[in-house]
Structure formats: structure tokens, C-alpha cells
Amino acid sequence: MAKPKVLVTRTWPEAVEARLSRDYDVTLNADDTPMSADEIGAALGEYDAVCPTVSDKLPARCFEDGLRAKILGNFGVGVNHIDLEAARGAGLTVTNTPGVLTDCTADLALTLMLMLARRAGEGERELRAGNWTGWRPTHMIGRKLSGRVLGIVGMGRIGIATVRRAQAGFGMKVVYYNRSEPGADAMAGLDAQRLETVEAVMEAADVVSLHIPGGGANRHMIGADQLKLLGPDGLLVNTARGDVVDEAALVAALEAGEIGGAGLDVYEAEPQVPKALMTRQDVVLLPHLGSATRETREAMGHMVADNLDAFFAGRDVPNPVG
Ligand code: DGY
């Protein structure tokens, strides 16, 4: 029997590409160039499986004409780049990679908090520019994280992992917003107070870290009104999705001194980053590195492969979306 035809839209870790190439008739993207939505739409007519990433866009029009594909094996946990309703309407199974990137993403949220609080990016830029004149008592004074209030928006796996790190490492007090009460098991050993609204969290916290999916009702959940509540010393960290924050409102809030700073790993129109942020010292800007460790990226790839294996063997996929 012919092997299923699989398209991998970007370059993946070698070990996973080797595994897929053994079991499938795979087209790999050796030069790692992004594909357009139209190219992906056309591929859905030629391949049995397409494996996209967050840097691909799959709007409804991708799913309109004569599809051959039966499964989208997304390399990543977030799927707001895929029009899920259209994909499901066209009969596709969609899978993702939950769990394996939790620790790395939480690590990066803490990295951003520390970099912001201790002005690490700013200090490094000063030194590399040759502008450091030596140690002095009032040079580049930052803030302590210890004992501060951390606000979490979205107490899922990554939110919880972030809280564990912040409490164990820095003794931070925690308030959070989550639509529903998180499971008691997941929250075991955590001392965190659930508040009724995002606004209440913004007002109570010194540092707010976002951990909700993008798109839908979450788009621009953090806008001008919410940012104002964070206050002139408040720090915002986003390792979730860019569109959760209204970027124009964020720029305005920073420019007006309404918040103290922002640490961002994700943006509304990646890879574009608002020009106004590029020159600011009170922001830390990373290029969507949340899951970027060798172990995690390999685990993500193997998870996609496990889902394809199950699907093409006629078994239930382990990680269906929705
Ligand atoms: C995800 O998995 O959704 C990340 O944003 C990509 O690492």
C-alpha cells in the first residue's frame, strides 16, 4: 500500500524529520521558507496530511476546494492560526501538542519577568554599545520580584507552571483570572486567589502574565482600560498570543507612562513588531521563543508523528483539538 503523503510546512528537528520520512511519503521544507495560505490551500488538495505551525495561516478559504487531506497535525499547542470551524466542516481531524511545551513556556515567562524587573535587556544594550562607565550605586536600578504580586490571566497548564516557579523561586503572592475554577489536583500546593475579572487582576498585581489562547473572545482582552489598571509600576508579560493584547493600546500606555514595562514573546502580526516598541528601553522583545529548546521541539514533533500514526492506523488520535 502507498504511504500517506505528508507535507511538513517548516523545517523540523532532524530526528523527527527522519522518523516521518521512514513512515510516510514526506515533503519537507528544506529551506524553511514560509508558505502562503494559498500554497497551503493547494497542498490540502494534494496531501493526506498537512503539518502546519503557528507561522502558517489557514483561513477558511484553504478548506473550500477538493480536499485530499484528512488530518492537520499542528506542530504547537496554539491553533488560532487555523480556521477550526472550516477545517472541521471540511471533515479534517485537527491535532496539537499540549503539555510538552508547558515547562519551557513558563520558564520564558519568568525570564521576561526577570529581564524586565532587573532591566537586563537595557543593561546588555548599554554594555554592547560601549556606554558602560563602571559600577555605581545608582546605576540601572531595577525592582525585586520577591514578595510582589503576580497576576495570572489563564490558569491552565502554563499558567500553573508559571505560578509554581514564581512562588518557589521568588515567594510571589498570586492572584488570577480563569473563566472556570481550575481542578483541585492541578492547583495542589499552590497558594493563589481567584478573582472575578481580568480587571481585578490587573489592579491587584505588580506583574501580570498572560496564558490564554489567542483569537475569538480573547482578542484584545488586554486593552487601554485594563492597562491603566496595572499602573505606572506594573509590568505586563505575554508569552501566549499577540492578539490577546491590543498592541496600539500597549504602545500608548507605555508612552503615557501608564504602565512600567512589557516583556513580549508574541505579537499581533508576527514577525512584524510595532516600530514604536523597538526603540523603547522599558520593553523586552523576544522572537516567539516560548517552546524553543531542543528537547521541547523534538517532543512536539514526535507528538505530531504519534497523532499521524494513530490516525493512519485507524485509531483515535491522542491529541484531538476540540
Ligand atoms: C505553540 O505551541 O502554540 C507555540 O506558540 C509555538 O511554540
From TrEMBL:
It comes from the Bacteria. GO terms for cellular component: cytosol. One of its GO terms (molecular function) is glyoxylate reductase (NADPH) activity. Pfam families: 2-Hacid_dh (PF00389), 2-Hacid_dh_C (PF02826). Belongs to the D-isomer specific 2-hydroxyacid dehydrogenase family. This is 2-hydroxyacid dehydrogenase. Keywords: NAD, Oxidoreductase. Residues 110-290 form the D-isomer specific 2-hydroxyacid dehydrogenase NAD-binding domain. It comes from Roseivivax halodurans JCM 10272.
